[in-house]
């Protein structure tokens, strides 16, 4: 759009002199032109300005390719996609109906569906010839699955033991730690009396210097 339309749409004044296409404030005009989010396109004598989005998306195919590119990092916020393409919800709804994307919504209130928050690339749904079925299981596998019988609750422990398995409850039990009573420490600074009564019988007095008898 041109600057006159931009001023009329946004209500921002000061880029142009009144009723002219001449810049009113050159410093503001130059800053606007050099902004990282502004695209400037010149067609002959006509200069147009547009918003520079993070991603160039204009159709469902480009949206799906973008989601696939970022699938390893999770989904993409819907608000981020809207900044790049205001009408992106039309493409998201179409891709969701085809089973190619998964949409995370806020909690629904009554009959009103929740607001879309995040879109995920559905790798399984995008496989060839699967479409919205998202890789539904074949009948043979379903029959085999439902044919498996679960043992009664009272016989589960013995069944697990025979199979060499343990229940999750017993596996998560932590060994009980035995608490030991702390030993009482002796009083500090207590005096200990040492007696050597057997030495006295030999005529040795430890309170004096001991001199051995010469033979």
From TrEMBL:
Residues 136-165 form the Transcription initiation factor IIE subunit beta E-tether domain. It comes from the Eukaryota. Residues 180-191 have a biased composition (Basic residues). Residues 151-194 are annotated as: Disordered. InterPro entries: TFA2_E-tether, TFA2_Winged_2, TFIIE-bsu. GO terms for biological process: transcription initiation at RNA polymerase II promoter. It holds the Pfam family TFA2_E-tether. Residues 58-122 form the TFA2 Winged helix domain. Residues 164-179 have a biased composition (Polar residues). Coiled coil: none annotated. GO terms for molecular function: TFIIH-class transcription factor complex binding. GO terms for cellular component: transcription factor TFIIE complex. This is Uncharacterized protein. It comes from Puccinia graminis f. sp. tritici.
